[in-house]
Target: Tetratricopeptide repeat protein
Amino acid sequence: MKTLTLANIYELQGLKEEALEIYKEILKKDSSNSDAKIAIRRLSGMRKKFLNVNTQMKEYFVKMEEDIEFNEFERWLLKLWN
Model:
């Protein structure tokens, strides 16, 4: 059963797309559900903001092994969020 609670859990685990789909299904069943509407707006905005995130940095993140690499990635993330 797809509920707000399940969507929240997915969202907290970083499964944003899965959570967004659940919120959309909830809204289809109950168009007055304000929690689902707010969550959809929030997650849609996040998705738009990070739609074109640098895929090279993603690869860099996956292959990091040394502290200096982690520090560089952290600096990149801070720039991205600010």
